[in-house]
Amino acid sequence: MTSALQLLSHRRMDALTATAAAGIRSRVEALDLLANNLANANSTGYKADRELYRRYAADAAYDSTTGNQDPTQQPDIDSRWTDFSQGVLTPTGEPLDVALEGAGFFAVSGAQGQPLYTRDGHFRLNLVEAPAGNPERRARLETQDGLPVLGNDGKPVLLDPRRPVEFARDGTLRQDGLAVNRLLVVDPAQTQQLQKRSGNYFSFDSPLAAAPRSLNATVQQGRLEAANVTPAESAVRLIHVMRQFESLQKALQIGGEMNRRSVEEVAKFT
Asked: Which domain holds residue 69?
């Protein structure tokens, strides 16, 4: 009888260890996420990542004898989700800096020609060769990474580098008062299907033509959108997670010590 009780006690202590280990695993993932947000706090148009927790609900997650949840199926981070809330629009005074107020994304052409989306409107002009039969030089509107910014026709925006550029609130580009193009500002219907890529870009499963023009976003010239990360809040959360990690680490140590003693006690009755 005593031996059975000792084994039962040992089983419960294993549950404590497994629960603490699961908590530590999720806290490590949360620390990585928070650290990445803090590292991008000064990135133009950056959208913060948040954690989504889950708890197993399947029958297999429950102990058939006690009805309690299997400690190996404790809550952990099921997935990350992106917070697309508006960042603060900061004035820069630069004519090629533009920000979006409202839902929407600038469309750019990726390295392989695939459409990418970004909220980073820190653009520049890059001179390109003049087309045959046309002596006028043209400059392509690009991101700081050299990706072409797309116009309403889905093609790269070309401008006269000698003339000033004006951006209307609807994205129309004017030079010397004449409309020369219009920025393609799209609003993917399902933002949760956007996938984060390197360099503060997103990709979408649907082709570019299927992404409707944003009806709610307005273009603000001479401004840039700051990251929607609050460093102070993130720092406080980071400290909170670290304290949780330390507490779980202590619980893991206690569980290990209890398991060791349990094994020693069981050995006395065998």
From this structure: 2-85+229-268
Instruction: Report the DSSP beta bridge partners of residue 76.
Output: 54
26: nearest Cα among 77, 61, 60, 74: 77
DSSP string, 87-99: PPEEE---TTBEE
> Same domain, yes or no, for 177 and 193?
yes
Answer whether 89's CB lies under 8 Å from 101's CB. Answer: yes
Q: Which amino acid, one-letter code, is at 11?
A: R
Q: Where are the beta strands (DSSP E) in 6-119?
A: 49-54, 76-82, 89-91, 98-101, 105-109, 115-118
Tell me how far the alpha carbon of residue 200 is from its chain's centroid. Answer: 9
Asked if 194 and 117 touch (Cβ cutoff 8 Å), the reply is yes
Residue 226 has pLDDT above 90, yes or no: yes
Pairwise CA distance, residues 37 & 83, whole Å: 11
Which string of b and e fits 74-113 if b means at least 16 CB within 10 Å? bebbeeeebebeebeeeebeeebbbbbeeebbbbbbeeee
Regarding whether 122 and 200 lie in a shared domain, the answer is: yes
**What is the total count of domains within the chain?**
2
Same domain, 94 and 211: yes
132 class by beta-carbon count within 10 Å (0-12 exposed, 13-18 middle, 19+ buried): exposed
d(CA 187, CA 211): 6
pTM over 0.85: no
- Of 14-23, 131-140, 254-263, which gets the smallest average pLDDT? 14-23
In this structure, the answer to whether residues 101 and 206 fall within a common structural domain is yes
* Residues 37 and 161 occupy one common structural domain: no
Q: How far apart, in whole angstroms, are the C-alpha atoms of residue 15 and residue 13? A: 5
Distance separating alpha carbons of residues 76 and 26, to the nearest angstrom = 5
